[in-house]
Specification:
With about 160 residues, the protein is of the alpha+beta class. The chain has one domain: CheA-289, Domain 4 (OB fold (Dihydrolipoamide Acetyltransferase, E2P), Beta Barrel), CATH 2.40.50. It has 3 helices and 11 strands; from the N terminus they run βββββαββββαββα. The strands form 2 sheets. The protein has a 6-stranded mixed beta sheet with strand order 8-1-2-11-10-9. A hairpin with a 2-residue loop joins β6 (about 70-75) and β7. The longest helix has 26 residues, at about 135-160.
Length: about 160
């Protein structure tokens, strides 16, 4: 498997490369009322509003000030396009199946991690994208994005009148 390796709070994580689309330099995020706590807000990516997920919040790590050196990784989570705020996108690595240990063997309660890869340059936690948003968070996000869409539609109609 090829994986995008990135850093969050000094820890290395990996995302399966087919689930990633692009990497962007961090930009200002527009907050969204009613969005789940792990969602910072939205960013317009070529006309599409993409929710920005803060991985420090998702992983229960200490917050850090927003930094223009951070990256946003565009990825697909359960059929939804999101941007993942990471400290730094590092590299693309080839990870062999025999280098990965199932996370349940190491940490039985690691909800957002699928496995641990032991690479020559150190350990990488393989992220479980399907677990990044719970069903309740996904529904909450849908409602918040729908509210934005309605506001944009109303603004568009008002501008045309």
């Amino acid at each position: 498997m090829q994986a995008l390796i990135f850093d969050v709070a000094g820890r290395r994580y990996g995302l399966p490369l087919p689930a990633t689309r692009e990497i962007f330099q961090a930009v200002e995020v527009t907050p969204v009322a009613g969005a789940p706590g792990v969602i910072e807000g939205v960013v317009d990516v070529r006309g599409e509003l993409c929710p920005v997920m803060n991985l420090r919040r998702r992983f229960g790590l200490a917050a850090s000030p927003e930094d223009p050196a951070h990256h946003l990784v565009q990825a697909a989570i359960n059929g939804r396009t999101v941007l993942l705020r990471v400290d730094r996108a590092l590299d693309i690595a080839d990870i062999q199946a025999d280098q990965v240990q199932d996370i349940l063997e190491v940490l039985p309660r690691a909800g957002h991690i699928a496995g641990v890869a032991r690479l020559p340059d150190g350990m990488v936690l393989i992220a479980d994208l399907d677990a990044f948003l719970t069903e309740a968070e996904s529904e909450e996000l849908d409602e918040a994005l729908l509210a934005i869409s309605r506001m944009q539609s109303a603004d568009s109609h008002a501008a045309n009148d």
